[in-house]
């Protein structure tokens, strides 16, 4: 799967069914090439007035399933 294909999918929290946002970047472990985390754009769901970060990180172990339209995560 290409990164561009992942970026088109909505990220959904399985606990409450809310859409968290879209992928804006990924973090890869340089030593072994494994996916460390997804970096998600900030939305009203996770936005903080005092936050200086551009996105929120979702660790690889928080991903439940990557489907055809959505990525289900457990936050």
Query: How far is it from the N-terminal to the C-terminal residue, by CA?
Result: 23 Å
Average pLDDT level: 84
* Cross-sheet strand order for the largest sheet: 4-3-2-1-6-5
Helical/strand content category: mainly beta
- Unreliably modeled segments: none
Question: What's a quick, concise take on this entry?
Answer:
The chain is mostly beta strands. It has one helix at 3-7; strands at residues 10-13, 19-28, 35-41, 55-59, 63-66, 70-73.
General description of the model:
The protein is mainly beta and 75 residues long. It has 1 helix and 6 strands, in the order αββββββ. Strands 4-3-2-1-6-5 form a 6-stranded mixed sheet. It is globular and about 35 Å long. The protein starts with a helix and ends with a strand.
List keywords for this structure.
six-stranded mixed sheet; 6 strands
Give the topology.
Blueprint (H helix, E strand, L loop, with lengths): L2 H5 L2 E4 L5 E10 L6 E7 L13 E5 L3 E4 L3 E4 L2
Parallel strand pairs: 1-6
Antiparallel strand pairs: 1-2, 2-3, 3-4, 5-6
């Amino acid at each position: 799967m290409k990164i561009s294909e992942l970026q088109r999918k909505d990220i959904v929290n399985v606990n409450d069914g809310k859409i968290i946002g879209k992928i804006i970047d990924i973090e890869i472990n340089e030593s072994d090439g494994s996916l460390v985390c997804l970096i998600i754009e900030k939305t009203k769901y996770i936005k903080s007035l005092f936050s200086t970060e551009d996105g929120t990180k979702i660790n690889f172990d928080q991903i439940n399933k990557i489907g055809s339209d959505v990525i289900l995560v457990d936050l």
